[in-house]
Amino acid sequence: MTEAAAPALHRFQGTPAATRRRVRALDAFIDLVLEGNLPPTAEQVAERAGISKATFFRYFESLNAMRYDAGARMLERFPLLHVADPGQGPLRDRIERFVSLRVELWEKVHLLAQLQRTMVLQDPDAARMVDFVRELMVDQVREHFAPELQERSQAQRDDVAMLIAMITSVESWEQLRNTYGRSPMQTRRAWTRSIEALFSTST
């Protein structure tokens, strides 16, 4: 897996009850974003989490700190980031499984990913989170398609892995779904054909 350390929640010194309320606030933030509130205000998050605004700012140093922690919390909440049985099965089956997983993931969390990207020029933590997820995606490609990649040179392995990660990225999903009006089924089909083409021509 990736050499980069997985993003972790900022340290919080508090009672178990306070820690649970803080996580509830992070979940409230994530849920509000996924409902289309970009970005949620501190008041909205506090109301959804059932805490006061003053309590909210005791739990988080800033809104940026909360957004970073929400990104780390997202990695905990969505197991779709994990590819089951990597490298197992025929290539066609692995491509279809991988593509279906990516489409399902971005259908669920694309608004949160979009919000993180809007923060990268202002917040180094947000930039690190975006980079970590991108590195994670490339590492998962390398692991899932290891039988095919190991037959190629290092340069070819890197090229193919990074291209597959780009093809199935949230940015690609946004263009296909929002700009070009493609359905989830059409997006899966386009990604599947693209990956098949890469493996058929990258020897």
| Unreliable segments of 5+ consecutive residues | none
What does the radius of gyration come to?
19 Å
Task: Tally the structural domains.
Answer: 2
Net shape: elongated
Strand content: under 5%
Largest sheet: none
Share of helix, binned: over 70%
Class from secondary-structure proportions: mainly alpha
Please work out how many helical segments DSSP would assign: 10
| Helix-strand sequence | HHHHHHHHHH
The separation of the N and C termini measures 24 Å
Mean pLDDT, rounded to whole units? 86
The tally of strands reads: 0
List the helices and strands and how they pair.
Blueprint: H1 16-34, H2 42-49, H3 53-59, H4 63-77, H5 91-118, H6 124-144, H7 146-149, H8 154-167, H9 170-179, H10 184-201
Keywords:
elongated; 203 residues; Arc Repressor Mutant, subunit A
Summarize the structure.
This protein is mainly alpha-helical.
Overview of this protein structure:
- With about 200 residues, the protein is an all-alpha fold.
- About 70% of the residues lie in helices and about 0% in strands.
- Helix 1 (about 15-35) crosses helix 2 (about 40-50), helix 2 crosses helix 3 (about 55-60) and helix 5 runs antiparallel to helix 6 (about 125-145).
